[in-house]
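2.7 Reproducibility. Because tokenized structures are sensitive to small changes in the input, we list the exact sequence used for Amidohydrolase/deacetylase family metallohydrolase, including any N-terminal residues retained from the expression construct. No trimming or masking was applied before prediction.
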Amino acid sequence: MFGNRFPTAERPLLIRSARPTGFGAGFDQPVDVMIGKDGRVAEIGSMIAAGEDAKVVDAKGAFLSPGWTDLHVHVWYGGTDISIRPEQCGAARGVTTMVDAGSAGEANFHGLREFIIEPGRENIYAFLNLGSIGLVACNRVSELIDMRSIDIDRTIATVEANRDVIIGLKVRASHVITGGWDLTPVRLAKKLGRILKLPIMVHVGEPPPLYDDVLGLLAEGDIVTHCFNGKAGGSIIEDDDLYQLAEQAAARGIVLDVGHGGASFSFDVAKATLERGLPPKTISTDLHNRSLDGAVWDMATTMSKLLSLGMAFEDVVAASTTAPRRAIRLPAEGLLAKGKPAEFTLFDLVDADLTVRDSQGATSRLSRLFEPRHAILGAEAIAAHRHVPPEGGEGGGHVCPHCGWKS
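Resulting structure tokens (single pass, no recycling of outputs):
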């Protein structure tokens, strides 16, 4: 895979007095972590001598987790009217790995790779959109009008030429996108996924197709994003049959992903589903320029929302780190072992009194917040903090400068 592209550093990095979490058993006390110039873990212990040349980050007891991994973002900035710059949702927000969820199709993926993925400071991967044009003019020009929108041969060729960064296929299953085409795009994506031996990520939204029918087409490793959307006909709590199908899907290894976004996350749906014992497998933001200063803000705030709704701290961390890594087939075990590439997030859990919104405008108050301090990429410690939207944000007043869309 393409990841862990950390350049050789001039100085080693010592993280002092951090509390490991999300790495499995064996870390009951704060530890020091020395990272060599090569960007790999060199030593783990207590009171490690810094030496004369090491840069020291004093964690002061903050949590150290595997790097936060956002499974659903849109960062093909300049290539689509919906995408933001990677730095708006990456290391400066505590995120070390992100996955662009279908911004590019086969016709424009080369630009996403050359201008975004390769120069990126973070590890960036992509789901390739089934539609050849991707999200060039998102929701204004559909990428899935009919079969003229899909070139199967070129899609296969693009995946084969970019297997180091393309980790799956993305298809939007919603009548807003596909009109009356119903399940055909999902069937085509699943067929290509079988040929290419890759998972598919399916956006579920306004039916048709029905969320129920989409679940029936998926197999272990496939991903349903926007799993807690509150749209009529698409909410998994609005009828028991659909809820049971979702339970069965999760049991057979289908990944339920939050994919918050500007229109696809409901506090009520998430709370009810968590209370019934069906948590999301992965937490992601679906950050784009219509959600950044609206409902979503960043990864830390999205994680905090799930915590406030009753998800356990350890489960929130896993759903934001190792679970999405497994979903895209990255190593997820022994990440703090000696010799492993260093990719961590240093964060605190702080008291707060913050009003936030879901995608439908419902409000909630957060009393605890995930607060990123540093993203650790190799021997580089990048200062991080939560995104604070400008006045007029919080779900009400952001206007996209490119397309005029108001969130």
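Residues 182 and 209 are 5 Å apart (CA to CA).
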